[in-house]
Structures are given as C-alpha cells and as structure tokens.
C-alpha cells in the first residue's frame, strides 16, 4: 500500500507525482470516499464516478488560479479531499462541518457555490468574460456538468451564449446516462447515439453551437484524460469535452443499483450492502403518501396527470409512472418547463399534479405567476421537502415557498398536519378546483400508522381548532403542529389554545376574528421564513382589522441562510425545537 493520498494536502502535491502514480491515487481516493460515506452518509455514486476526472483536472490545470466549477456539486467529494479538506472530510454534511456541496466561503478551490443544477456553464462563462476584461488571458475556466444537468434550460442558455464568444471556457460533460434516476429526453438519446458512434459527425449539436468538441473519452482512463486535457488547455475559445463514466464506479453495488447508491445512507464499506434500518413499523414518508394516493386517485379519475422534473424516486411519482406511463412524466431537470407544461395541460381540462421540491420550485417562479396564476389555471403544486431538510443544507432547505407563493394572486396554499390531511387535500384537488393550489409537505416521515382512511373533502380556507385555551392562542401550519401539541401537553392545563390554520391562503378570517377577540397573546409557528411568511400574514390581518394591544410572537426561520446538520440540531439553531417553543410559551404564561 503506497498511501500516496495522505501526502497530498492540495493539488500542488498532486502535480509533483509522475503520471504513472495517478491510478494509485485514484484507488486510494475512491476507498477514502467509500470509507467515510459508509458511516457518515451523503452522495456517493456521483463522486465515485468522477474520481479520475477530478485527479486529471487538478493535475493538468493550475487550480485554484484556474477556476473549476462543479455543477450541482454532489460529485465534488474527491475535489474536496484533494483540496485541503481531507482531514475534515469526516465532518461532511454534519452540523458545524464542511458542506456537502462546493462553497466559496469554505475554500479558495471552490470557485462557485452549487447545489442546484445547471448553473456551472453560466458561472464559468461569467468568470471567463471577467478574466478577459481584466486582461488575464492565461486563466482557464472549467465547468464540469452531468448529462442530466446539461439538459436543463439554464445550461442551454449558457451554451447558446458561450458559442458566440471567444471566452476561454472548457465544458466537461460527465456522461453517465444517469441523473438521480435514469436520464430522460431526446438529448439523452442523442448522447447515447454519439457514444455508439452513430452518424453524428455531420450533426454534432455541440459543434454546431461553435464549440471545439472532443470525445467521447473514457472518463476512467487517466492517461487519456490527462492527454486530452493537456491538449485542450492550449486550445483557445469555447471547448467541450465529452467523457463517459459509470456512476458508482469502483463499488459493485453502487454500479449495479445507481439510483439507490446516489445517496445510500449507511452501508458496509467492505461488502457495499446498505445497512438495514431498525425493524420497527414506522409511519410512511410524506412522499410515499403522495405517491400512493395519486395512483389510487388516478385509477378512478382519468383527468389526473403527474409531472416531476427529474425526481421520480424522491417524489415517489415513480409509482404513477410505473402504472400510468402515458399520464405521468419525468421531464428531466426542467422545473420551468414542468410548471408551464402543467399549465398547458390544465387549459385542456386535465388535472396536473406537478410535484417539485420546494427549493427547486424557486427556479420556476415566473412560470408560476405568469403561466399559472395569472390565468388562474387549476394546477396542483405538490411541494415536497418544504421546511428544513437537514444535511443538504442551505442550498436545499425549503423555507422560502410560503413567502414567495403567498404574494401571488389566485394562489391557494395548504399545509397538511399529517398523512390523512395530505391524502384528503389531494382527493379534494382532483374533485375539481378553479384556481392554482399549492400543497406543501416536508421531507421524512409522518406521524400516523393507520393513514389510509376513507377520503374526506377538505373545506377550502377553513382552519381547525385543535384545542381551546385561556391565555395564549398558538396558530400553526403544517406538520410542526404535531410537535406543538406535545409541547402544550406539558404546560399547565387549558391555558394554551392551538389552532391548525391549515390554509396559509386564504386565511380563515372568521376563525381569526374569534381568536383575536378571545385571546390576549398570539403566537405563530411555521417552518418557513419569518419574513413574509405565515406569521406575517397574521400580522397583516391584525393590522388590517385594527386589533390593538395583541402581542403577536412569530416563530419560524430567521433571516439568515441555515447551514447543514441533523434536523434536531437545525431546529435548535432556529429556535424551533420543542424545548424552545415550550420556553417561549412559558415565558408568556409567567409574564
Ligand atoms: C435545479 C435542480 N433540480 C433538481 C436537482 C436534484 N438533483 C440533484 S443531482 C440530480 C441529478 C444530476 O444528474 P447529472 O447532472 O447527470 O449528474 P450525476 O449525478 O449523474 O453525476 C438531480 C436531479 C437539483 N440539484 N437542482
Ligand atoms: C444533490 C441533490 O440535489 C439531491 O440528491 C438531493 O440531495 C436529494 O434530496 P432528498 O434526499 O431529500 O431526496
Ligand atoms: Mg449523470
């Protein structure tokens, strides 16, 4: 065992090694990633697939002076380990530890922060143009982008611009024919044909866009990669290198089951087997309540269609795709398209359930306003991963959706408190609505074992009194209401009332008037941003109706980006833990 990796603090050390030793570094780097991710969890398959590319890029280019951008960034573990973070890598994604994604504030080697896909080409082009303006003509600018991410509109906007510049830009397409799930779409078919060498020389899309195209190159062949990158380093203008890799390379199970090993959780580093979870019956994941219920409803209602932008497994829309392949669509990483596609379907009388993670829906904001809400189209937005999401951190927390949706006219916004609420609102949506409806629910599991009850229609805009009290009215929305219930159970009896407002918009004004007339103190609690969120809507209500001397205390996500960590650590950090909620309520009771 040579143990070369331990001698590499940063790429300067790597560059001192002879080319023949790089495969040894690759082996050690791969083992290092497997060792740590096996116990600390995280994104595995993507990083294993780019081990050789990572080494070759840092070997050939003069990072950090040359600027290297990792699209999405979930494949950058090898990059982090080779760039001064090997000793910290066991803190990856943990509270207070390094981020699971590249982050400018973390390292000078992270030229641009990523997490959401398809930004790398625009960012690298921006840097390349800046270098030209500054007269730094020798600087290289490299974007590494996956085959699923390059199919996104934003990546194409970057290609379209780059092709008419003389920017010193290298785009490396890491083609493994996979996103999280298998890649989809005509572009995927095109790349498959390129790889098979089928009649593409005359019609190469990338060449047609004015790039100096090379490839496909075996992305696990270090000699070939280094040779080609050395050549491209001396080619001026926009360049495009197409490499072929295997997601999960080097761990048999990860190569075989690439979807599961995208982010497998804990696994045995020797056998590669995913460690079994405790054998206890648990409530379902909210994503599965959605996935299961939409299939149940679609069996009876032929107007239902489902849409996911590249998250069929994560959203559980895959159940509908499996049973109704003609009515459920994975459209690739294309949130904007997904929303306007849903709008188009809605104009023709279909009932589209457009399932997008809260954080990724941010990308389709104009489509929500301009294509859906302005035309008052009945699109059902199923907004998964709403609220804090844990270890993915600041790029992925779904904490803005309440604030960014609440200001849009026509929009109805609902947050189920449990699985049964989620089922019932999905049922209600397909009975027929004449407005856009947003349903937001969190990552992870619910609270109910016996959740497949008979459907009940939800009354739009109606809150639910969970229990009355005498001194404080707690107004909550969504699943955080369950934690609040258990906190109130520990407080003096009958003093704190709890109202599950259910609808962020429209508010149940009748219920609010009766609450404001009865209670002296109001506390709002939500898992979204305090600024512009649900609590703000209660303040607006209070101000509009001139309720005086009613202190309203708002609990929610403060005005800062929340980093990564376990959910309980993050809830503590934002003062939304049960302990903190209890102390806020006790303080008011003892005032
Ligand atoms: C805008 C956006 N939508 C969805 C995602 C979720 N997501 C993360 S990785 C990924 C697949 C990326 O595939 P590819 O670019 O081919 O990289 P690979 O994992 O194959 O290396 C998806 C859909 C995201 N990060 N950003
Ligand atoms: C990198 C990325 O964006 C996804 O892999 C994301 O981490 C998935 O999140 P979930 O684990 O919540 O599905
Ligand atoms: Mg891919």
TrEMBL record:
Its cofactor is Mg(2+); thiamine diphosphate. PROSITE patterns: TRANSKETOLASE_2. Gene3D superfamilies: 3.40.50.920, 3.40.50.970. Pathway: Metabolic intermediate biosynthesis; 1-deoxy-D-xylulose 5-phosphate biosynthesis; 1-deoxy-D-xylulose 5-phosphate from D-glyceraldehyde 3-phosphate and pyruvate: step 1/1. CDD domains: TPP_DXS (cd02007), TPP_PYR_DXS_TK_like (cd07033). Its EC number is 2.2.1.7. Mg(2+) binds at residues 147, 176. One of its GO terms (cellular component) is cytosol. The keyword Transferase applies. It catalyses: D-glyceraldehyde 3-phosphate + pyruvate + H(+) = 1-deoxy-D-xylulose 5-phosphate + CO2. InterPro entries: Dxylulose-5-P_synthase, THDP-binding, Transketo_C/PFOR_II, Transketolase-like_Pyr-bd, Transketolase_BS, Transketolase_C. The keyword Magnesium applies. SMART domains: Transket_pyr (SM00861). Transmembrane segments: none annotated. NCBIfam families: dxs (TIGR00204), PRK05444.2-2 (NF003933). Belongs to the transketolase family. DXPS subfamily. Homodimer. PANTHER family: 1-D-DEOXYXYLULOSE 5-PHOSPHATE SYNTHASE-RELATED, 1-DEOXY-D-XYLULOSE-5-PHOSPHATE SYNTHASE, CHLOROPLASTIC. Catalyzes the acyloin condensation reaction between C atoms 2 and 3 of pyruvate and glyceraldehyde 3-phosphate to yield 1-deoxy-D-xylulose-5-phosphate (DXP). This is 1-deoxy-D-xylulose-5-phosphate synthase. It comes from Lutibacter oricola. The gene is dxs.
């Amino acid at each position: 065992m040579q143990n070369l990796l331990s001698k590499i603090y940063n790429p300067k050390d790597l560059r001192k090694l002879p080319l023949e030793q790089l495969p040894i570094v690759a082996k050690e780097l791969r083992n290092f990633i497997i060792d740590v991710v096996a116990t600390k969890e995280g994104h595995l398959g993507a990083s294993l697939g780019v081990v050789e590319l990572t080494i070759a890029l840092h070997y050939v280019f003069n990072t950090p002076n040359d600027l290297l951008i990792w699209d999405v960034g979930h494949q950058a573990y090898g990059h982090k380990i080779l760039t001064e973070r090997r000793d910290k890598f066991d803190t990856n994604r943990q509270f207070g530890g390094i981020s699971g994604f590249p982050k400018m504030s973390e390292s000078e080697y992270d030229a641009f922060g990523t997490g959401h896909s398809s930004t790398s080409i625009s960012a690298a082009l921006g840097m390349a143009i800046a270098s030209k303006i500054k007269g730094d003509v020798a600087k290289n600018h490299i974007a590494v982008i996956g085959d699923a991410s390059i199919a996104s509109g934003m990546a194409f906007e970057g290609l379209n611009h780059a092709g008419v510049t003389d920017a010193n830009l290298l785009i490396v397409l890491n083609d493994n024919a996979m996103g999280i799930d298998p890649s989809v779409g005509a572009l995927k078919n095109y790349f498959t044909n390129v790889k098979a060498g089928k009649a593409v020389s005359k019609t190469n899309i990338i060449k047609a866009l004015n790039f100096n195209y090379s490839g496909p190159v075996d992305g696990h062949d270090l000699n070939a990669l280094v040779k080609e990158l050395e050549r491209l380093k001396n080619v001026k203008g926009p360049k495009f290198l197409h490499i072929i890799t295997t997601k999960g390379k080097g761990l048999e199970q990860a190569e075989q089951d690439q979807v599961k090993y995208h982010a497998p959780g804990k696994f045995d580093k020797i056998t590669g087997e995913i460690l079994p979870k405790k054998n206890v019956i648990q409530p379902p994941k909210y994503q599965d309540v959605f996935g299961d219920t939409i299939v149940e409803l679609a069996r009876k209602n032929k107007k239902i269609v489902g849409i996911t932008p590249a998250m069929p497994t994560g959203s559980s829309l895959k159940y509908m795709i499996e049973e109704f392949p003609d009515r459920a669509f994975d459209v690739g990483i294309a949130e904007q398209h997904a929303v306007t596609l849903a709008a188009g379907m809605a104009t023709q009388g279909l009932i589209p359930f457009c399932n997008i993670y809260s954080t990724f829906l941010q990308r389709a904001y104009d489509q929500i306003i301009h294509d859906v809400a302005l035309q008052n189209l009945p699109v059902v937005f199923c907004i998964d991963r709403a609220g804090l999401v844990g270890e993915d951190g600041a790029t992925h927390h779904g904490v803005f959706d309440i604030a960014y949706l609440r200001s849009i006219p026509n929009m109805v916004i609902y947050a189920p408190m449990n699985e049964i609420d989620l089922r019932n609102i999905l049922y209600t949506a397909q009975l027929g609505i004449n407005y856009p409806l947003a349903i937001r629910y969190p990552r992870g599991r619910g609270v109910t074992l016996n959740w497949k009850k008979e459907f009940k229609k939800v009354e739009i805009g109606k809150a639910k009194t969970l229990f009355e009290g005498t001194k404080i009215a707690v107004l909550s929305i969504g699943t955080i209401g369950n934690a609040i219930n258990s906190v109130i159970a520990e407080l003096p009896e009958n003093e704190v009332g709890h109202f599950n407002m259910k609808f962020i918009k429209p508010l149940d004004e009748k219920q609010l008037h009766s609450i404001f007339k009865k209670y002296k103190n109001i506390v709002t609690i939500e898992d979204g941003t305090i600024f512009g969120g649900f609590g703000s809507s209660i303040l607006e209500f209070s101000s509009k109706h001139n309720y005086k001397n009613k202190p309203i205390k708002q609990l929610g996500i403060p005005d800062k980006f929340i980093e990564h960590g376990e959910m309980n650590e993050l809830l503590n950090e934002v003062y939304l833990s049960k302990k903190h909620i209890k102390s806020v309520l006790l303080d008011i009771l003892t005032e």
